[in-house]
Specification:
The chain has 2 domains: 205 residues, P-loop containing nucleotide triphosphate hydrolases (Rossmann fold, 3-Layer(aba) Sandwich), CATH 3.40.50; 75 residues, 2-Layer Sandwich (Alpha-Beta Plaits). The protein is α/β, with parallel strands linked by helices and 337 residues long. It is built from 11 helices and 14 strands. Helix 3 crosses helix 4 and helix 8 crosses helix 11. The protein is 31% helix and 26% strand.
């Protein structure tokens, strides 16, 4: 259904996306996961034919974003990060207006609008002005306008941004209910919602695709790269150098353990638990605790992306005029600030 090959986009020399390639099958729900400013929105805008790519190619249902954007617009529904709503209009009048803009035949406008309202459970607010709706209902109307012409593909940019916990659950259920009826691609920086909603995850960092697959696939990748947490009684000058010399060890860091004592954090690309434990015990520094860090998919995400150490992203802006923040919660159940 969707095929992206070596897709790139630059803004005045700044790289927003860099040679991204992926495929999406018909009926799948795919999540783009990454920090704010990673390039997710730019990818969606290219697929939605709002931006032309600087390089590479992308097709939807066989149509090219370069050569056939009008054909693509007929078969996609798009929800940008800020829904395009007119506050003085009621829900029903707005959806009828959008249906006409999307060339829904006059004889079918009412039935299409009713179906979109039913899918997004807006029955009780159809006569309410958009400016009077809560943020959660405005997001629902945004999805309804994207659905009103029954598109094959639905593109949702941060659909749960700014929602409260109850609204997040409702939005998640809504997106899942669309599975099979539409091919859905959505973006988020909230890991828990991506894993609960999507069939596959594409992790984007600094404009590049750094990992993709189902949650179990990505966690298997994490299993090949582990951090060993070694609580010790005391330190000596040579122990860290000895640990770094073990084949497969990529880094050794000294931190404080949960009880205030010294802890060695040993990053490895293979399972070297036996060698690490033997080296510490042989060094005579007192091994009092030994465990493998269990961080799950969140740990992989943090290993793959590169958040700033200074509070500034240092990333290419998603749009030419506005650079987004990297302030992000990836903990399960977290929300963006």
């Amino acid at each position: 259904m969707i095929e992206v090959q070596e897709l790139s986009k630059y803004y005045s020399g700044h790289r927003a996306i860099d040679k991204v390639s992926f495929k999406i099958k018909e009926g799948e729900i795919i999540g783009l996961l990454g920090l704010n400013g990673a390039g997710k929105s730019t990818i969606l805008k290219v697929l939605g034919c709002f931006l032309l790519p600087s390089g590479g190619r992308a097709t939807i249902d066989g149509y090219s974003v370069h050569d056939q954007p009008n054909e693509i617009r007929k078969i996609i529904g798009y929800l940008p990060d800020y829904p395009p709503l007119f506050n003085e209009m009621t829900v029903i009048s707005y959806l009828k207006f959008v249906a006409k803009l999307k060339n829904v035949p006059s004889s079918e406008v009412r039935s299409k609008v009713d179906l979109a309202i039913d899918k997004t459970t807006l029955e009780h607010v159809t006569k309410v002005r958009l400016g009077e709706l809560s943020h959660g209902f405005r997001q629902r109307v945004g999805i309804a306008q994207a659905l009103v012409h029954e598109p094959k593909v639905l593109i949702l940019d941060e659909p749960i941004s700014g929602l409260d916990p109850i609204q997040i659950v409702e939005m998640r259920d809504l997106v899942v209910s669309l599975k099979g009826q539409h091919t859905v691609i959505l973006s988020s920086h909230i890991l828990s919602e991506i894993t609960k909603t999507c069939d596959r995850i594409l992790i984007i960092d600094e404009g590049k695709l750094v990992a993709e697959g189902q949650e179990s696939d990505l966690e298997d990748k994490l299993a090949k790269n582990m951090t060993l947490l070694c609580d010790i009684e005391r330190t000596n000058d040579g122990i860290m150098a000895k640990l770094r010399s073990i084949r497969g060890v990529t880094n050794v860091r000294m931190t404080k353990g949960p009880h205030g004592g010294p802890r060695l954090n040993v990053d490895t690309s293979i399972d070297v638990r036996a060698q690490v434990a033997a080296t510490i015990v042989g060094g005579g520094i007192g091994l009092v605790g030994f465990a493998r860090e269990e961080a799950g998919l969140e740990g992989l995400f943090m290993k793959l992306v590169k958040p700033s150490q200074t509070g500034s992203s240092g990333r290419s802006p998603e749009t030419p005029v506005k650079e987004t923040s990297v302030n992000v919660e990836i903990a399960r159940g977290g929300e963006a600030e």
